[in-house]
Design brief:
The structure is a single chain. The protein is of the alpha/beta class. The chain has one domain (about 15-285): TIM Barrel, CATH 3.20.20. It contains 16 helices and 8 strands. β5, α9 (about 210-215) and β6 (about 220-225) form a beta-alpha-beta unit.
Length: about 350
């Protein structure tokens, strides 16, 4: 079995994927037709530049314009349910067995849904996908950095009603440079009061001080991206010692210029220094990627072996926000498949 085929066959998880970063042009056309909205073209090929970045993407701001384009089509319960379902469908194509899909409830309320309702419709779509494709899928609710305290507290309150019922965590995303992590202590203190696990986008568009703040004062159990962690050796040691997983998204991190290029991407350095991290897609539609491609690129550019890839995949299982029993069951399922593929020896691991 050649490397690409083997990478494709491996069971996988994706812990950092945005709902509105997964929209296929054909889906966008269907949603536009259903909702009576117009598009720049009725040809799916012509729509690709509107939803997917090019290789010339210059920064995170340019990357985020793709979300501005699709959001108007994601304002109904039918749209949220359908797109969530399709995220699971796309995951199945790449042997993803567990996926955590994140979205910002407050960005989908133009048709008078409340935050709680948006979460419920996304969960409905994920559950339908679970039934049809045999994948375990959960949701993460995002608070936005540019939103008011009131709006973000509403997200936490809504999330509290679904924890253990399809929702596994809350997140903070948006303009990290302009809205540093320390501004959101009150928001995530409420999440901690409710016992909701927390992951925070940090160390992507700003430095490692945001990572430190996210862990020490916001209660983050995982860090979204964290590529700039290496800029501070003290914070890096803290993350390593506390075994805080980073949710790396290689293709996206290059496209948004979180690092200057592949030569500066710290994934091999993090692995060799014992930093716990997972490999994820972030936005498959926007980035033109999938989870198999993400593993392929790190094998080609950084020499990761199949055994090391297996370690990273199992890191993802361990870093998931599933409960202990579900996580143990998922790990057993993964080990059985990996043993069958001949890439895992339980005694060695």
């Amino acid at each position: 079995m050649d490397m690409l085929h083997l990478l494709s066959e491996l069971p996988k998880v994706d812990l950092h994927v945005h709902l509105d970063g997964c929209i296929k042009p054909a889906t966008l056309m269907r949603l536009a037709e259903q909702q009576g909205l117009s598009l720049p073209s009725t040809n799916t090929i012509d729509l690709i530049p509107y939803v997917q970045v090019s290789e010339e993407c210059t920064n995170l701001s340019e990357y985020l314009t793709k979300f501005d384009f699709v959001l108007p089509f994601l304002q109904t319960k039918e749209a949220l349910e359908q797109v969530a379902y399709e995220v699971v469908e796309q995951a199945a194509d790449h042997h993803i067995k567990y996926i955590e899909v994140r979205f910002a409830p407050q960005l989908h309320r133009n048709s008078d849904m409340n935050a709680e309702e948006t979460i419920s419709y996304v969960i409905q779509g994920l559950r339908r996908g679970e039934q049809d494709f045999g994948i375990k899928a959960r949701v993460i609710a995002i608070c936005m950095r540019n939103h008011s305290l009131k709006a973000n507290l509403e997200v936490i309150e809504a999330a509290s009603r679904y924890i253990g019922r399809g929702l596994v965590a809350v997140d903070l995303a948006g303009d990290e440079f302009s809205f540093p992590a320390f501004l959101f202590r009150e928001v995530f203190a409420l999440a901690s009061t409710y016992g909701i696990p927390i992951t925070i986008h940090a160390g992507e568009a700003a430095g490692p001080d945001n990572i430190e703040e996210a862990v020490l004062n916001l209660g983050a159990a995982r860090i979204g991206h964290g590529v700039r962690l290496k800029e501070n050796s003290r914070v890096m040691q803290m993350i390593r010692d506390q075994r805080i997983p980073l949710e790396l998204c290689p293709t996206s991190n290059i496209q948004t210029k979180a690092v200057s290029g592949w030569d500066a991407y710290p994934i091999r350095e993090y692995f060799d220094q014992g930093i716990l991290f997972t490999v994820n897609t972030d936005n498959p539609g926007v980035s033109g990627t999938n989870i198999t491609k993400e593993y392929q690129v790190i094998t080609e550019k950084f020499g990761f072996t199949i055994r090391e890839i297996t370690t990273l995949i199992l890191n993802g299982v361990e870093a998931s926000f599933l409960g202990a029993e579900e996580k143990a069951s998922l790990k057993r399922d993964f080990e059985e498949i990996l043993i069958r593929l001949g890439v895992y020896d339980k005694v060695e691991n």
